[in-house]
Each structure stands twice: as structure tokens, then as C-alpha cells.
Write a structure and sequence with these properties.
The protein has 14 helices and twelve strands. With 397 residues, it is α/β, with parallel strands linked by helices. The strands form two sheets. Strands 1-7-6-5-4-2-3 form a seven-stranded mixed sheet, with helices on both faces.
Length: 397
């Protein structure tokens, strides 16, 4: 069975009614035949048939033994961190999602967990920081927002030699482009809010496990902590997954065209996109991502100022200024003031997040319209700059 067919037919038909859509079981509890005797469900936090259907689908998508759904992507990340104990260490990619950085640094470090942020695009950096205390190696590949690529297979071999788990945030690539568990990772996390849901109408997180031992631990944490995804959002996520292949393939094609266009723009300094031959680890992305490089692009401006970036991000028409990514509508954001504001400026700069960095999430609009939108935004931003310059001259006179 091929990829798209497998996704479509991973969504079960309801055995009771034949409904082709998974029913929404909007219930808090379940009637039991006798104490402890039930039909596999006893309480809504512990189990729900709609959530179970979603979890089975996502486990199949990532070739894991099990998956568990959480209320948000950060709740999913939090569940993984609860596998750790005081004294454990994490080696994490330096260009990390701002919410994950906030959780690692401001919540878990005070419980005695040490985090080393390193550039994982060079495996030697991982070797330098991994120790017998390292419990997790935390990767994003591609990263948010500078689209760095790490060699998952090589890093997994290094981590496993030290008895550490490898976690890959696969949100940007999606299961359509990349299968981290097949590359050696132990745990995959997703913000289901992004490509899996695909319509910017829900927030969700998922954890997928390679072994039953890890699956049992995450299931226990899910039930004990209670950060579950509700049945309505589970149903929305299932619906989104059914069109995942079509959306992601279109978004990847569009993003490559937009990235190529940006390389020709005189206003643009650097373009970050794994599909470009100029990308540092393009060859690794080719191998890991099966020729699908994602729908997200980042770029910096030649005039590297926050003010210049703000002029561009507020001048687009089809690219909507908003947090998040992966939806059918194209989005634009300024990471320094939005998604990565919680990271100190010096740390942002060190990981490559410049003040003028702009992140694009390509939707499923016509590619030509998106390119034209960026063209007019650059012209509008330049016009605003000229007006301000003329005003300064007039004020000086």
C-alpha cells in the first residue's frame, strides 16, 4: 500500500454504524458492567475512543509502537521531559523553538536538569557535550526558524553509545517528508497545530514512541498529568491528516519556488531553506526528507534591522502576519518579536536568529500570487524607508 492510500485508510470506519467519519465521543465517563469491568474505557482523561483513533493513526504515520495526544505541542514536550530526573542533562539544538527554550530553561533547569544548547548541524559538537549524565539529545530538523538540518542517524548512534535517548521534533518536516524513528530516533514529537491539523483551527501535541517501554512511560505521564487532547480537537486533527500528503507536497513545491525567488531579490541577504543547494546540509536533507524540504522559509534583509523587517511583515497581503505555520493559508512572522521573543537577544543572535529574520509559512495558494505579494511588500517597505529618510532630511533643514 502506498503512502497516501495508507493515510486515508488508516482512518477507521465506525464498526457500530459504518460511519466513514470517526465519531466524536463527547463524554466524561463510561458506564461499567461491574467495578473495574468495562469496554476498555472508564474515564475521559484516561481513555477516549476518538483520541485512541487519532493516536493509532499518528503511530502508524511515524512507524511507532504507540502515540499519545496532548492539549498542545508544549504539553507533549513537557510529557517527554517528565521522563527525566534531577541531575540528568539534555543536549539540545541551539536554534530551538522559543516555547521549548522557555520550558527547558525557566521550568526544568530549576529542578536540577542541565541543558546544553549546541549547533547540532556538526556532529562533533554533540560529541563534545554528551556525557554519561546526558539522558536526552533534543533535535529539531529542520529547526525553527533558521531551518538547520542535523544528521539524525549519526547523532542517534552517538547518543545511544552513551545510553541517551534521541528526541526529534518533526513538526517542520511532517511524517510525509521524514521518518525520524526509522533514522534511529527514540521519540518523535509534533505540534499537531501545524501540518498535521493543517487548517489553523486547533492546538494539539503528539508524542510517538519507538519502544513499548517508552510508550508505557508516556502513557502513564499522560494519565497522571492530565494534559490530554479533547475529542472535538482529536476529530479535527484526524480530518486534517486525511489531506496531509496533498497539502504538504503542494506546500513544499511552493516553498522551493519562493525560496528560489528570494535568492534573486536585492533586498534579501540570506535565504534559509534546505531545498536550496546553497544550504549547509542540503545533502543531508535530501537523504532524510525524501526530496520534500518543507513549507517554511526564513530570510534576512541586507539592512539588518528590526524596523526594516517590521515594514516587510506588515506590508504583505496574502501572507498573513501571525504566529504558527503549516496551515492552508500562508503566514509571515518576525521571530525576534514573536515566536522567539522569550529567548534573550544575545542567545538569538548566537543561534542565527538575526533582528531582520523573517519566517514564511507557505500555504496552498497559487505560487505566483505569493511571489507577487512578496514583491509588492519589498517595494512598499522601500517606499516607507525613502519617506522616512526624506523626512529626516526635511527636519534637519
Amino acid at each position: 500500500m502506498r503512502k497516501t492510500t495508507a493515510i486515508i485508510h488508516s482512518v477507521p470506519v465506525d464498526p457500530q454504524t459504518g460511519s466513514i467519519s470517526v465519531p466524536i465521543y463527547q463524554t466524561a465517563t463510561y458506564v461499567q458492567e461491574a467495578p473495574g469491568v468495562n469496554k476498555g474505557y472508564d474515564y475521559g482523561r484516561s481513555n477516549n475512543p476518538t483520541r485512541k483513533a487519532l493516536e493509532d493513526i499518528v503511530a502508524q504515520l511515524e512507524n511507532g509502537v504507540a502515540a499519545y495526544a496532548f492539549a498542545t505541542g508544549l504539553a507533549a514536550i513537557d510529557a517527554v521531559l517528565k521522563l527525566l530526573s534531577a541531575g540528568d542533562e539534555i543536549v539540545a539544538v541551539d536554534d530551538i523553538y522559543g516555547g521549548a527554550y522557555r520550558l527547558f530553561t525557566h521550568v526544568y533547569q530549576k529542578f536540577g536538569i542541565t541543558v546544553h544548547y549546541v549547533d547540532t548541524t556538526d556532529v562533533e559538537n554533540v560529541i563534545d557535550y554528551i556525557t554519561p549524565k546526558t539522558k536526552l539529545v533534543w533535535l529539531e530538523s529542520p529547526t525553527n526558524p533558521t531551518l538547520k538540518i542535523s544528521d539524525i542517524k549519526k547523532i542517534a548512534a552517538i547518543a545511544h553509545a552513551q545510553n541517551a535517548w534521541v528526541v526529534v521534533d518533526n513538526t517542520f518536516a511532517s511524517p510525509i517528508a521524514q521518518q525520524p524513528l526509522e533514522l534511529g530516533a527514540d521519540i518523535v514529537v509534533h505540534s499537531g497545530t501545524k501540518y498535521l491539523g493543517g487548517h489553523s483551527d486547533l492546538v494539539a501535541g503528539l508524542v510517538v514512541l519507538k519502544t513499548q517501554t517508552l510508550a508505557d512511560q508516556i502513557k502513564f505521564i499522560q494519565n497522571a498529568s492530565g494534559g490530554i487532547l479533547g475529542p472535538q480537537d482529536c476529530w479535527l486533527l484526524i480530518r486534517g491528516i486525511e489531506t496531509l500528503t496533498l497539502r504538504v507536497e503542494k506546500q513544499c513545491r511552493t516553498a522551493l519556488s519562493v525560496a528560489q525567488f528570494l535568492t534573486t531579490c536585492p533586498e534579501v541577504d540570506k535565504v534559509y531553506y534546505p531545498g536550496l543547494a546553497s544550504h549547509k546540509n542540503h545533502h543531508i536533507a535530501q537523504q532524510q526528507q525524501q526530496g520534500l524540504y518543507g513549507g517554511v522559509i526564513s530570510f534576512t534583509l541586507k539592512n539588518d534591522t528590526e524596523q526594516n523587517a517590521l515594514k516587510v511583515v506588515t506590508a504583505t497581503q496574502y501572507f498573513k502576519l501571525a504566529e504558527s505555520l503549516g496551515g492552508v493559508k500562508s503566514l509571515i512572522c518576525h521571530p525576534a518579536q514573536m515566536t522567539h521573543k522569550s529567548i534573550p537577544q544575545a542567545k538569538r543572535h548566537q543561534s542565527g536568529v538575526a533582528d531582520s529574520l523573517i519566517r514564511l509559512s507557505c500555504g496552498i495558494e497559487d505560487t505566483e500570487d505569493l511571489i507577487e505579494d512578496l514583491e509588492q511588500a519589498f517595494k512598499k517597505a522601500a517606499l516607507l524607508s525613502n519617506v522616512q529618510q526624506n523626512q529626516l532630511v526635511a527636519d534637519a533643514v
